[in-house]
Amino acid sequence: MSPIRDPIHGYIEILPSIEKLLDTKIVQRLRNVKQLGWTNLAYPGANHTRFEHSLGTYYLAGRLAANLDEQEKAEIEVAALLHDIGHGPYSHDCEDVLERYTRRDHADVKFLLERPEIASILEEQGMKPATIASHIKGETRISQIVNGTLDVDRMDYILRDAYYTGVSYGIVDVEHLLRHLGFRDNSLVLYQRGLKSAEALLMSRFLMYPSVYNHHVGRIAGAMFVNALETAIDAGMINPFDLQLMDDYELNVKMRSMQGYPGEIIRRLNQRELFKRALFVGFESVDRNIVRYSSVHRDAEVEIARLAGIDRGYVLVDIPKVPDFKERNMKVLTENDQLKYLDSVSNLARIMESSYTDDWRMGVYTLPEYREKVGQIARDYFNVEKVPKQSKLEIA
Length: 396
Prior knowledge:
Elements (H helix, E strand, L loop, with lengths): L1 E5 L3 E5 L1 H7 L2 H4 L21 H15 L5 H13 L12 H8 L7 H4 L2 H9 L4 H9 L14 H14 L8 H6 L1 E4 L2 E5 L3 H19 L2 H19 L13 H9 L4 H10 L5 E6 L15 H12 L6 E4 L12 E3 L5 E3 H4 L1 H9 L6 E5 L4 H11 L15
Parallel strand pairs: 4-7
Antiparallel strand pairs: 1-2, 3-4, 5-9, 6-9, 7-8
Helix pairs in contact: 3-4, 3-9, 4-8, 9-11, 12-14, 15-18
GO molecular function, one term: dGTPase activity
InterPro entries: dGTPase-like (IPR050135), HD/PDEase_dom (IPR003607), HD_assoc_2 (IPR045509), HD_domain (IPR006674)
Protein name: Metal-dependent phosphohydrolase (HD superfamily)
């Protein structure tokens, strides 16, 4: 075995069969795909990559799969290592673009697993690309370890993202949590003794959303990047089916060489010359049904830009989805041997589930010189209600 030293998990032992996969171009590409996309413009330390996250997920999967039979354990370790090979450049910032133009998401990796450099290694180990692809997509019993309600993927990224951004929310006893997860009736269940560790993990994720994952700088940079990338694709300058074979640097260089809007925007991002918030409001100011119409935000951009008398590319409307709390479906094995859903045994889980909407924000971004004009037009367009400010505490 070859050990790899990891700042999160310590030494990760790599089997020779796994080392072969690590050395493929498909996996090595992940060294140049940032885990958090453009979030390093807000947190300079957030330069960690999908490669090290994949190693961490592989390590945790092996720990959790220790009681499976030899073949299942080997398969789920490989699935964990390869689960992110379908990510495009800048990770989640590229995800909606992939789905729109290719009808694939980052978990649709069968076509990559079938490429000779991966398929031949899997064949040596008695594995089929289709089987590993099913594990990655969450379609098998053991896939719950990597793609489930409380999986090792999120365990690693929460710890890793907290570490590299420098926030203090990633203090979770993963060792204790792993000891209290196991299979029961074909479901991965949490034993009640591990409930507090699970709550700590979910609380860390909950706190990371407003401070890291939805930080306004990252949202602005991501929106600029996506708009520039879509413009380049629509102009025939980039083939969207090539994205899952490119890394951050390849795409960045390619876009920098372009004339017009895509080249301008990528240069702005590289120099941190970002758009500014013309509007940034929560559900207290807009109808929360607006989330349903996030897919038609381009229409809003066109109209707001028209009314402001500026080019559409300089008005970006950002309507995030409310984070999915699929952990509610995690089954907990109580001390009296009953299986119950997490939100029925954890008051904290119920509070977190209902509180995700508190930190939701819709943003409208533009160049600094257009900020005031675009902000007023956007307020009228979205019928934003002004929330009265309480200037002092009223004492009864």
